[in-house]
Structures are given as C-alpha cells and as structure tokens.
Design a protein that fits this description.
Shape: globular
Number of helices: 15
Oligomer: single chain
Amino acid sequence: MKIGVIGGGAWGTALAQVAAAGGPVLLWAFEPDVVDAINADHVNPVFLAGVPLSHAIQATNDLRDLASCEALLVVTPAQHMRRILGAAPVETRPLILCSKGIEADTMALMSEAAAQTCPDAPIAVLSGPTFASEVAKGLPTAVTLACRDDAVAAKLAQRIARPGFRPYRSTDVVGAEIGGAVKNVLAIGCGVVEGAGLGKNARAALIARGFAEMTRFGLARGARPETLAGMSGLGDLVLTCSSEQSRNFSLGLGLGQGKSAESLMSDRRTVAEGAFTAPVLVQAARAVGVEMPISEAVAALLEGRVDVKRAVEALLARPLKDEAV
C-alpha cells in the first residue's frame, strides 16, 4: 500500500519515515525548500534537522500527485485541514487524521470537518504521546489509531506498525480527538507554571485537574472513559505537559516568564495548536454545560485579558469541592 502524507512539518516527516519502512511514501509539503531537500538529500533541515530520511520517501508540492496513493496521512495544521483536503484527490481513499485541534470557525472536530469535506472517505484518527524526533529515530512509541470501522483500522495499523511504533486500535474516534485537542491547551498551562516558577507540586496538580476537565468534556461529547485514560488522552497529556520539546509547553513557558502571546507566536515557523484550540474549546465546553476553569484561564492569558498572577489567584480562589466533581 502506497501511503501519502499531507504535511511536511516535523510530525508529517516523522510519520513518513515510519510508513517508509513498509513501502513507498509520497510526502506533500507546502515549502519548496523542504521538497527539494527531501528529494535531493533525504533530509528535512527546516523541520526535522539531523535525521536522515528513508530513500523510499519522495516529496512533492503538487497535491494532485497524491492520486497515486492508496491511503493518506493528514498532518496539516488543524485550522487549514478542511481547505487542504478540499483541494486533495481524496475520493474514497482512507484518511488518517494526525492533526490535534478543534476548528475555530465551526467548533468541529477534525473528523467532523473531514467527513463534511470528503464524505466518501473512511476516516481514522491517529493520536498519542509522540515527539516527532523520537518517532523519526525509531525510539519506542505507542499511539491510538481510532476508526469506527475496525476492519479499516486493522488494515491501516498493519501498514504503519513497526517494532518501535505500536498502534493500539479503538473505535472511539471522538475520544481520541478530544484527548489530543485538550492536552495541547493544558500543556500551555503547565508551561506557564514552569515559566512562573510555581513548582512541581503545582504542575502535578494542574495535570491531574486538567485530566478531570478533559474527562468531563470528553464524556459530554460521547467519548469513552477508557480512551481518555489511554494513549491519546492521559498518555499524551503527561508527555506534552512535561517537556520543552512540546511546542505548546514552550509557548506557556514564555507566557509564564512574562512574554506576550503575540510576540511568542510571531517568532514561530511551527504551530502551537493549543493557542488556536483554547478559545474554541472554552466555547464548546460551555455549549455542553461543562466547566473547564484551567482551559478558561489559558484562553484568557493568550488573549491578554489577565496576567499570570491574576489567573493563578482566580484558580486558587475557586470554591472547595469534592475531587470527583
């Protein structure tokens, strides 16, 4: 099965590297310099420097070339996914969505946006605790591969599985997506805690209470609790809340040090998805009657409505309650 990858950033390139161990891969990238470097030198110096890439990976700037592929890994920024899929030759090809976020204009999950854009394509979601550089180097990694059609999931899992890359199947697409979207927002919060010097106790508390927020929202949207407690939920949350390798954590780190969101994001060529997800997540939670105070605080910080001191004070001043609530 020839795999197409839509998106030539670090994560798209790492997934192309994984898939190339089992057959040919065609990677579409927006940046001409990325395409040229992959085809000529088998490297992606812009987004994944220092990692030699498989010769089975070819790159292109033309979405139409993906018509030669039998399945597509979609690794675009979440807010651009609908537009790019609308221009790609999807038809009935299975889509494996690897972007983590909620569409800002519609509050749609990525699977919902993809289904509206490509109604005839089987849709799967790949999510979990993954740093691109480690995946590209073949270090041990486990992920969730969710698809409502388990036969499709089994076929796709068999194609991308490697000794160092283990996909666990699920039929809970919503749960896999919500875990990936919410953890990005919470990772910003953990970065703020680190940048402001609030200590390890505070970060552990934020992870635990953030997981409670993720679970409340996920259950309200129809997710299964075991999915939220698995690779795509708790697993991804722990990873991205604990390391500066996470773009979202590093964004929060800068906020905690007193820098503005605007200045931090203007310097980035890569996307911290949580910055776009936070305000729409707050809206989506309110729409289903779910309280998410940590996510609300992160959204307020990103929008400049509060500073770190006031955000922390507001969270600590909340009424005492039962932990299970």
